[in-house]
Write a structure and sequence with these properties.
alpha+beta; 4 helices; four-stranded antiparallel β-sheet; two-stranded antiparallel sheet; about 160 residues; about 30% helix
Length: about 160
Amino acid sequence: MFRKYKRWITAVVALAIVGWLYYFISHDGRVAKDFANKLYDTPLPPETRIIDKGYDYGVLYGGGPWGSGGHPTVVAYIKISSRLSEKELVNYYSTLPELRTINGYEVYFKGYAKRNKRFNEGSRSWYEGTLPAHFNKKRNEKEPIEVIVQVRTTFTSNLGEFARS
């Protein structure tokens, strides 16, 4: 009787192993997506809309922003357009409780940020920049300003040293 079901049992065991391997290997992608969704789910300031958003992750991401120590780094950003002043936007994001749970959020204004890319992979990019010495307090009623809000952190990979580089 066992011979009769041997092929079915082998197929079910093989499918279970493949499913477990897929779940194990895709762990880093799920962690990165969940991290990015925390940023995407934060409420926007008034008179603001999202222009673009994105995220990515990897061990050698941009030479390891903040010195990753071999851990994967996840970077998520939203590019927004707003009629609020620079000062209002910085104040809004500095007091937002949703971003306090994320280590290190960054706010960059157009002209103060540079998009960095890994030289061999055009899709992996992140922003680096500075804040202006003095924030403009004047609202941008006629022409909205573009702002980048970015978060990044490291996490522990299931794959250890073999994590996506």
